[in-house]
Amino acid sequence: MSEQPLYIFYDIPGTKTKYLAWSPSTWKTRLALNYKGVPYKTEWVEYPDVAALAERIGAPHTSVGSDGTLKYTAPILRNVRTGTVVSDSYKIAEALERDHPEPPLFPPGREDDIAAVDYAFNNEVSTPLVGVLLVPIHDQLNEASKSYFRKTRESAFGAPLESFGKPEEWIAVRDTLAPIAAAADARGESDTFLVGKTETYADFVAAGWLVFARSVLGADTPEWKEVEKWDGGRWGRLVRAFKKWDYVDDPSQGLA
Length: 256
What we know:
Elements: E1 7-11, H1 24-36, E2 40-44, H2 50-57, E3 63-64, E4 70-71, E5 76-79, E6 85-87, H3 89-99, H4 111-132, H5 134-140, H6 143-157, H7 169-187, H8 201-217, H9 222-241
Parallel strand pairs: 1-2
Antiparallel strand pairs: 1-5, 3-4, 5-6
Helix pairs in contact: 1-3, 1-8, 4-7, 4-8, 7-9, 8-9
């Protein structure tokens, strides 16, 4: 953004898109920052350097390993005026809502619905979607991050990256998205947005995951074009609705 940044936003770079952004968790935060119109500047950090950066700037850990090791992940958002640092996309969204309430991410009375969508994406959609994309994620990383990604993901998934990505694995992705779409259809409020008649943080969560898939796959690939058609075209409509916030730092620089 052209004005002096209020925040420094730490993200992990890729090489697939012109503006480097790709990660689902950081896309949630980036879209929310752009929606709020908050001035920020991205600083790119490679996977192996995230923990050292977090410790240096005082970012909270986001989980604890089975051996007690503190885990640090992006996104991380630092307020340059106050020095406050927040980690975790949901906590960052809550902080943005508190400090910049308009336009809203969490309309009153919809908090439980939003939390349910966030849970579904993070606990049900994420595993099959990341699984089917493990190889393209790895391949679009910078060399500094590839070894880290391979080691940690092969440990988490229990197999070499190359054993994933079969066409039939997309069925599991589709099947985890279908109940979320069905719940939104049952509410009958919008054929685009998931909770309510206009966008809420639930949609930023969904858009973050979907823009991630599009970024890693490529917008013109058969796989992405198929995703856009699922559930009556709901997911394609949602991503198109978020296109105006689909940029890095400055909307004048064009879309990601």
